[in-house]
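DUF1907 domain-containing protein: structure, please.
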Amino acid sequence: MAVTKHLRDPPPLDELAAVIEKALLSNFKTASAAVVECPDLTQPPFNLAASGLSGNPRIADIGGQGHLFPRPILEAKYSLLHLAQDMEMSPNAGFLLGAGAAPFQDIGLNAELAPNLCWRANDQTGSFDNPSSMSIHNGSRVIKVNEARESVCEQARTTNCALMVNLYGSDGETGPVLKIKAKTRTGVMNFPDCIRSGLRDVYGDFRPLSLGGVFLLESGKAKFHIMPDFPAEDQLPFRDRTQLEREWLSYHVFEAPVVCLTVMHSADPEGLGLRMEHTHCFEAGDRKGGHYHYDVPGDDEVGYEAYFNVASVVYRIDQPV
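Here you go.
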């Protein structure tokens, strides 16, 4: 697979916090952003695989929507551990989170995936080619729909994925991060898009920024979609994106609390075909999840709490033709 590497030059976190807070206050009734020491994200309500978002922060965009539309490219199959290697991460310790497509090659159907995976070498040196040399904690979730089109959220049993995935990677260490709060949306943008838009307004194409982390829908409701299994061959290719989005995807509204793993970019000046924001979610009780769209308009109770870090490098892997 083709892998290209693109360095980023992010401003200090305290500068970003001021920009993000200003953007959110234009779209939410109350909002704040500050630099804090990351809490232990392995604890409720986040329940992540590693405690922090620090240590060699990086982001990768793998595959893309061109591997789904106009027809699924079934050769687009990936290993999260090998992708970590492509991201030049250490096999001795690391943490990945993000949003992507579940490994249809392992589970027998198409579905959503919320990657949430960390590893530590058993001895002095681990190897991505020898997973037994590492202790792997796989907290990833597979989110699918059953025959009644109801959400089913399950623990992932493999470390694979498919089609497309957006990943934030780090050593999983605690350290300074952005803590962001927002409540009661008053504008038209959802939570991550408001952050992205605010960063783009200030830094434009000349200083693209890439962030990743976790946010909690801590109150209110939000809309999600879940990809069902692939259509039958006689129903392919998709006629257009309207058919894919309106007829094929399964939509759901879920109440808080929901944990949301996200990767976002303020700009794509190199023309890498980046997915500008991708967020997949799960509930601690594993009853619901999916791809986050937006909080339900008119819901005065909606509230968010986020912990993000900014990447110093972006990798573009297996970009669709």
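Notes: The chain has a mean pLDDT of 95.
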